[in-house]
Amino acid sequence: MSADSSATGGFSEEERAAIKERAAELKKEASRGHGSKAAAEERDVLSKIAEMEPSDRAMAERIHAIVTANAPELSPKLYYGQPAYARKGKVVCFFRSGHVDKEPYSTFSFTAEANLSDDSGLWPTSFAVTGLSDEAVKTITALVKQAVS
Known about the structure:
The chain is of the alpha+beta class. The chain has a single domain, classed as Aspartate Aminotransferase, domain 1. Helix content is 50%, strand content 18%. The chain has six helices and five strands, in the order ααααβββαββα. It has helices at 3-8, 13-31, 37-51, 54-70, 98-101, 134-147, and strands at 75-79, 82-87, 90-96, 106-110, 126-129. The protein has a five-stranded antiparallel beta sheet with strand order 1-2-3-4-5. Helix 2 (13-31) packs antiparallel against helix 3, helix 3 runs antiparallel to helix 4 and helix 4 crosses helix 6 (134-147). It starts with a helix and ends with a helix. The model is unreliable at 1-7 (pLDDT under 50). Residues 1-44 are annotated as: Disordered. It comes from Nonomuraea mesophila. This is DUF1801 domain-containing protein.
């Protein structure tokens, strides 16, 4: 991520343009019959993120980058109309827009498919997300890695 994107917690204009370009490539491939279901689902997720309110879009873009970089075995897909990441078709984690849900904050959550349980009898399943500080990014990264371990 470029330096100017870290201040806002989202992607720079160049990074956003690259995402839009990738979504357009996937759409073009699908229209030619060359697109796979996975490519179409990724395109749908990128399109949904692009439609979000700016504050949610910035967080969803960062979370998308974190998940795809740290858990490449997860496939982007829509889950109740919001960005999600699945293994073998089963959703492991997902982002919910606070604006879409008419809530004061967005959430990043894990399903029972995530490998987060431990012997303590208490583990995270959902987090309110109002911004993505360096500490929040580290936490999400660690949880995503554990979820697919």
